[in-house]
Protein 1
Amino acid sequence: MSILISSETKIMVQGITGAFGGKHAQLSIDYGTQVVAGVTPGKGGQTFEHAGVKVPIFNTVAEAAKATGATVSTIFVPPPFAGDAILECVDAGLDLAVCITEGIPIKDMIRVKRAMSGAKTRLIGPNCPGVVTPGTGEGSKGGCRIGIAPGYIHKKGHVGVVSRSGTLTYEAVFQITSKGLGQSTSVGIGGDPVNGTSHLDVIKLFNEDPDTKGIILIGEIGGNAEVEAARWIKANCKKPVAGFIAGATAPAGRRMGHAGAVVGGHEDTAEAKIAVFKECGIEVAETPSDMADALLRAAKAKGVSLD
Amino acid sequence: MNIHEYQAKTLFAQFGVPVPQGASAKSAAEFDSALAQLPEGPTMVKSQIHAGGRGKGTFTNGYKGGVKFCKTKTDAKSIAGEMIGNTLVTAQTGAAGRKVQTIYFTVASDIKKEYYLAILLDRASSKPVIVASTEGGVEIEKVAHETPEKIFKVLVDPAYGLADFQVRELIFGLGLNAAEGKNAAKLIRNLYKMFWETDAAMIEVNPLITTPDDQVLALDAKVSFDSNALFRHPEIVALRDLNEEDPKEIEASKYDLAYIALDGNIACLVNGAGLAMSTMDIIKHYGGNPANFLDVGGGASKEKVVAAFKIILGDANVQGIFVNIFGGIMDCNVIAEGIVEAVKEVGLKLPLVVRLEGNNVDKGKATLDASGLSLVSGDTMADAAQKIVKLVA
């Protein structure tokens, strides 16, 4: 088991004919992911080929879904058009849209999010590394890799990872794998202030997933999403949880790379978030090198095995 | 992206948000022509820098106050002469301060009462929020903390837009009389229109004032824009003032590097914003002090790494460098080659600690070893951070 996606999931890639989207479609195919369709308006009828796999390209998401049965899309569309690409997934009734694109105007995302309320489709991102459910093959191949994360650092197992940041997700995944443990699913929700799926949404899914035995929650300065997740964990989650917040040394008012990583008020500092984590029984990683160890401490305290 | 008060007020006027009559001058030679546009009488002289706390600031030449009230235009001209070309230090500028290169003269308004008004993004609801308070001219964080009942907020539905009843809620909340309320309603609507149409990230009016004849005016204006949306606003990009930005940050942006100067002595070169932030944190955790935030991004090339090295070494405070790369997809060997080339090109004399992990890491480490460079490698972030902190101590 896993959350959001499994080795059975059929995905399409919006922007498969671009350099970035094409490269990562190839890597996903190499990983064993079922990439069944590409979407590039105007290039319908063409084929994307890699390693003997022929992926048909469609003009629209709806056509691609209808013809191939794909239920999930990965979006590699440039920022001015990415909001529209997300809405196209909603209109086609997909289960999940994962938007990798960085630099989408905030106003576009405000409108997209409003238009998505009540819709069936779940959005992850934008500005995110994507989602990986590792497989059982060598280097965790045979799993489902959506987005731009390195597949080979994963290992099939029972730790759920959720983070806003790509490289910090990889760091946590790598630490877990290095300790001989593995991941049920790793989810990068993205560094933008307006995004689809929140920390809390993912934590709820991990909490319900019988195959996830422990959770690493990685956050950063800005907003109150980590605080919201922590309070819910305190009230509802029995699984061991470790947490890390990046940006303790970031000066107020400066955007730290991610559009969402700006300290605005007193409540969204690293210090405030770490204090809430501790109050909610989340084992805090002292440094980013300590994330897997922190989860092991939390598991030990609860008498839970992560194997 | 931030803009100056005088630029913000020009936009306000274009969108029908009333402001006191004003005129700007970029040199002492322009004072007369600017003042000629204003009526004789009480005049404000306002230093234009991208930082708050101007009124309570001090110039490095000892002159106090970056915003002054003058009884006459003649006085205003002489006060402006004290400010222009000089460096103003405020609570928000840091010790270095900012050089005042523009003066904004405005008619000094008669103030009946001061209020607060702002529009920004409410992250929790993913909607624009309008914030108003009866307590203007003071720090709004303090008001929010001490007297939250004096703050009024409405969340705007992006599908419908700002509704009339929401404007009324704000006006009644502020306790305005009928004539003031009518003027304020128009102002709030137009300000929201500006926020939405220009892709503003934040508009803050502190204070918003009423006058004895029930006019409502934006006495100050602080406006910033969503940098992701600048591609569709050439008119906003034209307002960018490079004098207000760190030259190293401007240089970095040319190479698509996210760089922010800090006041420590350990330079960082990292891939990924989250990892870059936590690299700064781990340096601090082990007792060091980061000199910068630097994210080379996911697709770093050799050229980008070389440019990044030059930028971080442009900071005279730097006494050591910490390279922290988790090459997920990015090839560690590309980074290694970039480091070798950069070190040779700049003739690096400072201690350098490199932590490489991920894709093609063995080849990357071999490249570093074979280069003959005197660098220290770290196995984990923690190991590498402790090494660089020790080396610069």
Note: The mean pLDDT of chain A is 94.
Protein 2
Amino acid sequence: MAPETLIPADRHYTSEHEWLLVDGDEATIGITDFAQDELGDIVYVELPAVGTSVTKGEAFGVVESVKAVSDLFTPAAGEVIARNDKLEDAPELLNQSPYDAGWLIRLRLADPAELADLLDADAYRREFPDA
Amino acid sequence: MPADLRITLLHDRHVALGARMVPFAGWTMPLQYVGILEEHAAVRERVGLFDVSHLARVTVRGRDAADQIRSITTYDVRRLAPGTAHYSLYCNDDGGIADDVFIYRLQQDRWLIVHNAAFAGPDLQRVQRAAGDAAQDVTAETVMLALQGPLALAMLRDTLGPAVDGLKLHACAELAWRGATVLIARTGYTGEDGAECIANGVTGATLWDALHAAGAKPAGLGARDTLRLEAALPLAGHDIDATTHPYEAGLGWTVTLDDARAFTDRPFTGHDALVALQAATPVRRLTHLKASQRGVLRAGQAVRTEDGGRTLGALTSGAFSPTLRVGIGMAYLPPDLARPGTRLQVDVRGRALPVEVVRRPFYRRPL
């Protein structure tokens, strides 16, 4: 068994192993420590352009590790107001710092009420006991 | 893990090292220990240690062994001197490739053949049809290790003794070590110098421990795949299979049609078809593609003309090359579009990724 991964208590989670850190009507999105560990060495990240509108549940990008391709799903609807362009040259930031330097995009939330559907850290841990 | 998967005699070591174990060709094998990129780099820069005990090992003994093995394989193994090994193919009657194999002539009348795990069953039957009881499957009771990388031979010399010196490329020798015999061959599947070792279970495990303690980095199937693809070594069942033949795969050099000694009773399996295929104008060729932009190539993705107008084939292998930091792959393409420098595109999940045909291999070790 892999050692238990980090699940910070300050953010929301999805069943697709993304996290969402809310600040007012904005939210930063990334993938969890468990997700990066499962994927292994990440070598390519594809993210939407700033200004793109995203719909909850749709794929907004892709991460590829040496072995696998994984879609990134939008946990809430909104407009992309920033993206982490450092990942283009340094996709390994997703492995090294999934909750901080490896963030993916920042959204202006269309409807903060959608956040009610997301998991908190305890619920995420319960849903994925291996995480 | 499904219960019907086989484990190698080193399984407990992999688990203790924290390896991610995955099902592979009927076996539970380590995909990675710490990470594919780190393990890949260790093999390119220093030395990596692989458990390849899942490869099927069959011995053949007797005065007729040379002719028997020759009757099922494309290379005329009868010309091998004792203490040497050669890469060869098993072909079907139509010239399609059933598997690629390594054949070791240990002594004049004692041979070892190494098969891919995925084809272990049919390959063993093929050998038994030719050699009967003289063929013996020794996979279960032996360990096979690969020590690969620029420091590999020096480490093996320090561990196994000076008898390792003078082992030429593709040579093999049986060494006495700690009261047992270790078969060492200067072969591998990574594009680096190195050797593969076969021994009984206890001795093989002791050798694993000794090499690990000496600083060899355990490396899994993930790194093995990226290493072999950078070296443009084909993977049986993917880049070569029953629907492809040796000439279009660039493996004509493994086929001997002009034997120095006459065939005993019948030519080897696939001989007549291969004579015709060699004379025919090739319609496609296994081609090596390198991405011109960021992106990862994967097996199965469509290869198109540069303008995207015509689909030419699909990648048989694809990966991110850790050494070149770019996507690489192989595909069977029409010869006029298989020339180095030709620009094409690959459909990467709907995105047209520009690629260029390059000469094989993608990576060649510095001399």
Note: Chain A is about 15% helix and 35% strand.
